[in-house]
Design brief:
52% helix, Glycosyltransferase, 481 residues, two-stranded antiparallel sheet
Length: 481
C-alpha cells in the first residue's frame, strides 16, 4: 500500500507546489524490494527520505512541497540522522533523499527573498559550519516563537553584534602582538567579523533584509582595503577572524544571493588570510594549529580551492592525535614532551596537550577541531567518525571538570593550579555526537544546561542558534539562562 493512497496521488504544499511522493516511494521499493508500510524493513527506512522525519517518525508527509526545490535534497539528508540510531538505516534514508535531486516540480512563485545560488563544483554551499536546511529549521523555530531560539537571538552578544547602527572598521593591515600588544586593528577586526556573521544569521532566521545588507556592508568594507596580517599573533588573528568571516560570506552568497562584490571578498580571503593560516605552527600550541586549520578549510569551501581543502584535511588528521590523547595511542601521546604538555604526566583518555595550561586554551583547540569536522561533515567527509573515540573522550573528560568547577591538578599536572572555565561553545559537538550518533554525552549536556543560549568568543559563535536540537528532540526542561 502506497502512502499517497491515504491522502491523494500527490501531496500539495502550502505554496501550491505538487510533489510526486509516489515516485519517491516507488524508487525506494525498487531499490530495497520492500514497502514503506513494512515497518522495520529497508524500504521503510528509505521512505523516510521521501517525507519529513522527526525523531525517527513520519511527521509531515508533504513537507518537501513547502521547501524550495534547490534546498530539498540538503534538508532531507540532514534530517536522516534522526531516522534511526543505526548508520546503515540512515544511509537508506539518504538514498530516499536522492529523489529530491531531480524531482520535477512547477516553477516556484516569486519570493520576497532573493533566490539562493545553486551549489557548484565539488563543494556544497552554504557549507561552512551551517547549511541552508539548518538555518531554515532555526527560522521556523523563531517564527513559531520557540523560547530557546528567541533567547538565542536576544542573547547579549548576539543583540550587540546585530546593532544596525554600528559602522564597519576596515583596516588595510592588522598588526597584532601577543595578547594584542600592540593592537593595531586587531579588536576592530574581531568585532567586525563577529558582526558580519551575526547579521548574516539574523537575516537567515528572521528574513530581515537590513541585516543581510549590513553583513554585505561590513564584508565589502574589508575586502576593499584589507591586505595582510602582521606581527607575532598574525597567524592566530587570521585564524580567529577568517572562519567567522567565511561563514557569513557563505550564507550571504549562497542564500541571500545579491552580493556583487562576493568575488572580491574571496580574493581577500585568498590573499590576506589563507597564506597566513596555511603557514607552519609547530612552534605554537595546538590550539593555534587547529584554529588555523579550521579557517583554511572554511576558505577552501568558499573559494572552491580543492588543493587548500586537501592540505587542511591532512593537517587536521596530523594534529588530532598530537592534541588529544587516547590510551590506545601508546603509553604517551605522539610528539610528547613534558614542557610542551605543560607538565602533564598522567595519561588518561581525553587529556589534551593544553589541559595543564588552562581550560580556556583547551576549548579553543578542541572546538576548532569540532568546527572543522562539522564543515567537513557538510562536505561529505566524516572526520568526526575517523576520530570519534578521541573527540568524545576529550569532550567528556573536560566537561566533567567544568561541571565540577575544579580540576585535580595534583593528580595530572604535578600540583600546578589549572584554571577551569567555560567558553560559549559545546553545542556543535553535542548536536553531532548526541543528536546524529546517539552518544549520551552526559557531562557535555550538563555544561550546556548552564550556558545556553551561547554567545560569542573568537571562533566560537552563536552555536545555540545554529545547532541546538538540529538532530535531536529539544529538552523538555525549562530554558536555562
Amino acid at each position: 500500500m502506497q502512502l499517497s493512497l491515504l491522502f491523494g496521488a500527490f501531496a500539495l504544499g502550502a505554496s501550491g507546489k505538487s510533489c510526486d511522493i509516489d515516485g519517491c516511494f516507488d524508487r525506494c521499493e525498487a531499490k530495497y524490494d520492500s514497502s514503506w508500510d513494512d515497518q522495520g524493513s529497508d524500504g521503510y527506512y528509505c521512505s523516510k527520505g521521501c517525507v519529513k522525519v522527526n525523531g525517527g517518525e513520519i511527521e509531515d508527509e508533504d513537507f518537501f512541497c513547502d521547501v524550495e526545490e534547490s534546498k530539498r535534497f540538503s534538508y532531507c539528508t540532514d534530517s536522516c540522522s534522526t531516522a534511526s540510531s543505526k548508520a546503515e538505516k540512515q544511509e537508506m534514508c539518504r538514498y530516499g533523499c536522492g529523489f529530491w535531486k531531480s524531482s520535477p516540480t512547477p516553477t516556484p512563485s516569486p519570493s520576497p527573498s532573493p533566490t539562493p545560488t545553486p551549489p557548484s563544483g565539488k563543494f556544497a554551499h552554504p557549507g561552512v559550519l551551517v547549511t541552508d536546511a539548518m538555518l531554515l529549521k532555526a527560522r521556523q523555530h523563531v517564527a513559531a516563537g520557540d523560547a530557546m531560539w528567541l533567547a538565542a537571538i536576544g542573547e547579549g552578544d548576539f543583540k550587540d553584534a546585530t546593532d544596525l547602527s554600528k559602522k564597519p572598521q576596515p583596516q588595510d593591515k592588522v598588526d597584532c602582538g601577543y595578547d594584542d600588544k600592540p593592537d593595531n586593528g586587531c579588536t576592530e577586526e574581531k568585532e567586525d567579523v563577529e558582526r558580519a556573521y551575526a547579521h548574516a544569521l539574523k537575516w537567515a532566521v528572521t528574513g530581515d533584509e537590513a541585516h543581510a545588507q549590513k553583513a554585505i556592508e561590513i564584508m565589502d568594507a574589508w575586502s576593499k582595503v584589507m591586505k595582510k596580517h602582521t606581527n607575532k599573533n598574525a597567524r592566530l588573528q587570521a585564524g580567529w577572524c577568517g572562519s567567522p568571516f567565511t561563514r557569513a560570506a557563505e550564507i550571504i552568497k549562497h542564500m541571500y544571493g545579491n552580493w556583487p562584490n562576493a568575488d572580491r571578498f574571496g580574493k581577500m580571503l585568498t590573499e590576506a588570510y589563507l597564506p597566513t593560516v596555511q603557514s607552519d605552527a609547530d612552534d605554537a600550541n595546538g590550539n593555534w594549529d587547529l584554529i588555523m586549520t579550521e579557517t583554511a578549510m572554511s576558505i577552501a569551501v568558499f573559494t572552491e580551492n580543492e588543493d587548500a581543502w586537501n592540505k587542511a584535511v591532512k593537517r587536521w588528521k596530523h594534529r588530532a592525535p598530537r592534541y588529544l590523547y587516547l590510551e590506545s595511542d601508546g603509553s604517551k601521546p605522539e610528539g610528547y614532551s613534558k614542557d610542551r604538555w605543560y607538565g602533564l604526566d598522567k595519561f588518561k583518555d581525553g587529556v589534551c596537550q593544553e589541559t595543564c595550561r588552562d581550560f580556556q586554551h583547551t576549548q579553543y583547540g578542541v572546538m576548532a577541531m569540532i568546527n572543522a569536522a562539522e564543515t567537513a561533515w557538510h562536505q561529505g567527509l566524516d572526520l568526526y567518525g575517523e576520530e570519534s573515540d578521541r573527540l568524545v573522550a576529550g569532550l567528556e573528560f573536560h566537561a566533567k571538570y567544568i561541571k565540577d568547577g575544579d580540576f585535580p591538578s595534583d593528580k595530572y599536572c604535578g600540583g600546578k593550579k589549572v584554571k577551569v572555565k567555560t567558553d560559549p561553545t559545546w553545542e556543535i559537538a553535542y548536536n553531532h555526537f548526541h543528536g546524529r550518533r546517539g552518544e549520551k554525552m552526559e557531562y557535555t549536556a550538563d555544561v550546556l544546561k548552564t550556558i545556553r543560549p551561547t554567545g560569542s568568543k573568537r571562533h566560537m559563535e552563536f552555536e545555540t542558534l545554529t545547532h541546538y536540537a538540529q538532530d535531536y528532540e529539544p529538552e523538555s526542561s525549562p530554558l536555562f539562562t
